[in-house]
Amino acid sequence: MSIARSLLLRASRSEWLAQQFRRRQFARRAVRRFMPGEDLDAALGASGELAAAGLGTVLTQLGEQVRSGAEAQAVRDHYLGVIDQLRERFLPAHVSVKLTHLGLDVGRDACVRHVLALAAKAREEGSFLWIDMEESRYVDATLQIYRRARAEGAGVGVCLQAYLRRTPHDLTALLPLAPAIRLVKGAYNESGEIALRRKKDVDAQYFTLAVRLLDAAATGRATPVFGTHDVRMLERIREWSVARGAAGRYEVHMLYGIRAAEQRALVAAEVKVRVLISYGSHWFAWYMRRLAERPANVWFVIRSLF
Ligand SMILES: Cc1cc2nc3c(=O)[nH]c(=O)nc-3n(C[C@H](O)[C@H](O)[C@H](O)COP(=O)(O)OP(=O)(O)OC[C@H]3O[C@@H](n4cnc5c(N)ncnc54)[C@H](O)[C@@H]3O)c2cc1C
Fold first, then answer.
1. What is the Cα–Cα distance from 227 to 286, expressed in whole angstroms?
2. Active-site residue set
3. Residue 134: its H or E element
4. How many helices (H) and strands (E) does the chain have?
5. Contact between residue 65 and residue 105 where contact means Cβ atoms under 8 Å apart
6. pLDDT tens digits for 136-164?
7. Residue closest by Cα to atom 22 of ligand 1
8. Which residues does residue 57 pair with via DSSP β-bridges, in sequence order?
9. Ligand 1 centroid to residue 88 C-alpha, Å
């Protein structure tokens, strides 16, 4: 991991920096590159525009590690309202949640109830609930809650991070459920004991996991989503899917504002693509992770100063 990436990821957990950044106009300008706006309406508007161009979307309200049950309940209510709005506007959109935003640190039982309520609502309204994966200390709880939600029915998927050493085992354990899995490389600051540190190794593990998911998808035993902007990786995945009879059995998800031209090129090549749209005022930690993924992005922040 580069020093710049490591510093940016450490900075992402600074409350003081978050307060400084949120107040500054230049920072708000820079953030707009990755989000259509802070409020839900901006996200719904962008979702409509993308739908017109043949792209689905996934909406997520920014926020994590809430500290009270009331905050978590408000987040659940917010998402219940979002799912209603998606139906009313006929938007081909899903929602994605972070369990610590739904109160995982405050009370596990309440968090499970919130997830079950959202999964049921998404199923009812023809949407889909995605569960993000956060730092490694949350992986066990996240996978247990995912299993609990799947026991109630389909319509819910979970993210797995290719950089974690444990992920091949987690995938083995999940496959009997015929799971919906969004495979990503991983965005947090993890130690070498827990996560692969070299990009080359993460990429290799990503492809190995992708192959396992595609082979399961070929016989209807998994619904894979590849959450990556790595176009070379996506080309390898496409080739494998064709060779193994899994073409058309996966989706590609990318973040709003990143590789927009490639998103459209994939749609033209008949790949199902969704764009993950983030919104909300708690963007600091999330934005720092986007800078860490490509430290060259820091130049956009500097340019926004002027
Ligand atoms: C839909 C989606 C959901 C995600 N959910 C989670 C999650 O729940 N948990 C989690 O830990 N991580 C999540 N991530 C983030 C993920 O772990 C990676 O940090 C992120 O996707 C960057 O890795 P990459 O796969 O795009 O590949 P990389 O090899 O890092 O990047 C490939 C190329 O994409 C471009 N690129 C990548 N990131 C950026 C950026 N920020 N700005 C500009 N260009 C960029 C660059 O051109 C780069 O060369 C998610 C990512 C996506 C797309």
1. 16
2. 132, 182
3. none
4. 13, 8
5. yes
6. 999 999 999 999 999 999 899 999 999 99
7. 293
8. 93, 275
9. 31
**What does pTM read for this prediction?**
0.94
Count other Cβ atoms within 10 Å, centred on residue 296: 9
State the distance from the centre of ligand 1 to the C-alpha of 12, rounded, in angstroms: 16
* 35 CA → ligand 1 middle, Å: 15
* Residue 231 to residue 262: CA distance in whole angstroms: 8
Atom of ligand 1 nearest to the CA of 132: 8
Residue written as token pair 């790595």:
230
Ligand 1 near 133 CB (within 6 A): yes
Atom 8 of ligand 1: nearest residue by CA position: 132
Q: Is there an atom of ligand 1 within 6 Å of 135 CB?
A: no
Does ligand 1 come within 6 angstroms of the Cβ of 164?
Answer: no
Low-confidence ranges of the chain (pLDDT < 50): none
Residue type for 122, please?
A
Question: Among 266, 240, 265, which residue's Cα sits nearest to residue 252?
Answer: 266
The pLDDT score that the predictor gives to residue 145 is: 98
What tokens does 305 get?
């100063």
